[in-house]
Amino acid sequence: MPHAKPEELPSGGGGRWPMVGDGFRSAQWGDMEIGYTITEGVDCTQLYQLGGLPGGVCTCPHYGYIFEGSIRATYPNTDFPDETATAGEAYFFPAGHVLIYPEPTRALELNPA
């Protein structure tokens, strides 16, 4: 069974996510992607557009826990309201979102691969 401390996960998903660099560490374990985000703050809107994501939104649902900071999810071209999860909270953001990290944040995610 695989196991690792979050900071030991491969940077950029071991090459699968080259545009994110050291700010996102992840590994695919079975049918799950285990990810650890460490950021000083970033708005992913342009990253999603430049990365060629359909409609400029993330098509993967995200499940996670925030150790420090916060994450805001926006849902462009929908009636869904913005959501913000903060330190000490578990979260679920459905597919079709854009993530914004308004402050330094550390979060662990467990997502479908």
If you had to describe this structure to a student in words, what would you say it looks like?
The chain is mostly beta strands. It has one helix at 45-50, and strands spanning 24-29, 32-39, 42-43, 62-68, 70-74, 83-86, 90-93, 98-101, 105-112. It has a five-stranded antiparallel sheet with strand order 1-2-9-4-7, with no helix packed on it. The model has no long low-confidence stretch (mean pLDDT 91).
In terms of quaternary structure, the protein is single chain
Task: Report the span from N to C terminus.
Answer: 17 Å
- Helicity range: under 10%
Spatially, the strands of the biggest sheet line up as 1-2-9-4-7
Topology:
Layout: E1 24-29, E2 32-39, E3 42-43, H1 45-50, E4 62-68, E5 70-74, E6 83-86, E7 90-93, E8 98-101, E9 105-112
Summarize the model shown:
The protein contains one helix and nine strands, in the order βββαββββββ. The protein has 113 residues and is mainly beta. The chain is globular.
Descriptors:
113 residues, mainly beta, five-stranded antiparallel sheet, four-stranded antiparallel sheet
